[in-house]
Write a structure and sequence with these properties.
Layout: H1 2-29, H2 34-39, H3 45-55, H4 61-74, E1 76-78, E2 82-84, E3 91-92, E4 97-98, H5 99-134, H6 139-152, H7 156-170, H8 186-219, H9 223-230, H10 235-263, H11 267-272, H12 278-288, H13 291-319
Antiparallel strand pairs: 1-2, 3-4
Helix pairs in contact: 1-13, 5-6, 5-8, 5-10, 6-8, 7-8, 8-10, 9-10, 10-13, 12-13
Length: about 325
Amino acid sequence: MLRFLVRRVLGAVITLLIISAVTFMLFYSVPRDPARLACGKLCTPETLELIRHNMGISDPLPLQYWHWLTGIFLGRDYPGFGHCDAPCLGYSFVNREPVLATVMDRFPTTFSLGIGAAVVFLVFGVGMGMIAALKQGKPVDKIASGASLVASSMQIYFVGTLALYFFVYQWHIMDQPGYTPLSDNPGAWFSGLLLPWLVLALIFTANYTRMTRSQMVETLTEDYVRTARAKGLSQRSVFFRFAWRGAMGPIVTIFGIDLGVLFGGAMITESTFSLQGIGMLAVKSVITSDLPMLLGVMVLTASFVVIANIVVDACYALIDPRIRLA
C-alpha cells in the first residue's frame, strides 16, 4: 500500500509541474504584452515599467518560469510592491497582494459550498440510485430515472435564479444566500449556504442517481452476487455486503474528481448567489486580466483535483485490493 501511494504522489508532482509549466507558457507567451495585461486598466507608465521588471519580461520564458517556480519554495521579492513569502504563487499587481493570500482568503467560502453540496448530492444521489436499482422496473425506479433525466438537463444559473426569486424574495422561506464563517455563527453559516447547496447539488444528484443505478444493476448480475443468493443469503446481505461494495468503485472515482473541481471553485453557483469564493475570484481575474492571479487559481485548482485523485486511489485500493498491484 505504501509503495502504491508513493507512486501516485510522485506521479502527481510530475503532473502538477507539467500543468504549471504549460499554463505559465500560455499566459506569458501568447499575450503580446503580458505586463500590460497584468497591470490592469488603471495603469501608469511607471507602474507598467515596474511590473515588467518584476515579471522579468526581458528574460527568456523558461527563466521566467524558473523564477516563478523557485518562488513557491523560497519566496520572492517584488520591488515596489512587497515581499511574497514562500509558498509564493506570484503577486497580483491589480490588488497589490500575494496571490496565495488572496486565494486562501476566498477558500473557506468555496470549501463550505463544496462540502455541503457534496454531502447533499452524495446522500440523495447514491440513495435514490440504490433504491431505483433495488426496485428495478417498478414505479419507484421509473420516477427516479425520469426525475434524474429532467434534473440533469437543467442549468445552475436558471435553477438558481428561480430559487432566489421564489424561496427568498417571494415566499421568504429561506435567508438571503451569503457566507458567514462557521466559527462566528453556525446557524447563519448553514442558512446562508443552504440554498446554494441545494441548487448546486441538484444536477450532481441526478447524475449520481443514474450512475449508481446503472452500476448496481450491472453488479447484481455478476456471478459472485448470484452465488451469494444461491447460498441462501438474505436480499439485504446480498445487496449491501456484495453488490453495493462492488458498485462503489467507479462512484468513488467520479466523486473524488467532482469534489476536487468543486474545491477549485464553482464559478456559476458562486456568481449566481454572489458568493466571494475562488470561482468568483477567477471570474474577476479574467475581467481585470490579472494574469498572476489566474495562474495561481489554475495551479491550485489543478492541485485540488490531483490531491483528490490520490485520495480516491487510496480509497479505491481499500475497496478493491487488486488495484494496489497496478
